[in-house]
Task: structure prediction
Amino acid sequence: MRDLIGIEDFSKEEIDELIEISKDIMDNKEKYSEMCKGKILATLFFEPSTRTRLSFESAMLSLGGSILGFSNANSSSTSKGESLADTITVVSGYSDIIAMRHPKEGAPLVASMHSNVPIINAGDGGHNHPTQTLLDLLTISKEKGHIDNLTVGLCGDLKYGRTVHSLVTALSLYSNVKFVFISPEELKMPEYINEILDKKNIEYVETNNLEGSIPELDILYMTRIQRERFTDVEEYERLKDVYILDKKKLDNAKEDLSILHPLPRVNEIAVEVDDDKRRAAYFRQAENGRYMRMAIILKLLDEKNLNYEYKHLNDAIESNNCKCENSMCITSIERGLKQLAVKCNDNKLRCIFCDHEIK
Ligand code: CP
Result:
């Protein structure tokens, strides 16, 4: 079964193909309108969403298929104590493909171990959000005409921001992309993402200075400081408005800068920036999500993908003595789940579900 758990599940060639299919769908909607007739998409959202859930549902309906699901864990039997494994075993008997969002990191990987139908990760805690990344790449391709040779600034919560983790991993596949990571010390990019860039000798700068970084950027990817990821409320209050992009800060920006944001925004982009129609690309970005998710559904339901060799677990070893200590990892709540790990080049063990180091 072909799943989309992390962006690394697709090669660069497949990502480029998805971008081209999305563009073709935009230009030829009628051609695709019955391609999923008789197919059912389940959207299982254990965490709030506007864009991801509704664009997935819009995508399946636009392909002629049907939808079912829930938008709140409290309205599912999870609230009665049902395990994720049991929920997925049951729902995969009711549907042909499942898009799921969960607050625990690695939950979609656990789901894929129990599903008879493709699982799409629609966001797992602060870990990954691969379908957001695919629509971000579509947006960059449409706004700039290319994805190579860009200087990309990512600003805000780089520690818990699942969208930036998947996006940096994907952009590392393209040529001559340079990164500027703009965050307070407390919200810096996780080590495992920097390691991906180090291994490929890709240039990145870490700074806390938004205004000083803007002039060199082709893309500025703003992110929200996410209250729901903080265990310390005081730390959230101190950091929540650390970056606010307003018109004044754009005075020295390139004329063709593209400002992206996965949304929802709170204060990090002032509403006045919306009037800068050329550079403010974030609402066009959200709309692109519908077409990219149509392309993703088509790819995962494609017959030739049904015997795909599942690579996530290939290198996994059972870690009997050590347990992942990340309280946000799915291993912290799922009953009967074996601790699986991968050994990295530096001999460190990383939890296969959340990528945190196991000590
Ligand atoms: N970008 C994104 O994931 O938005 P939602 O949380 O509204 O789905």
Remarks:
- Residues 49-52, 123, 132, 262-264 surround phosphoric acid mono(formamide)ester (CB under 6 Å).
- The first strand starts at residue 40 and ends at 45.
- The mean pLDDT is 94.
- The chain has three domains: 7-129+287-302, 131-286, 315-358.
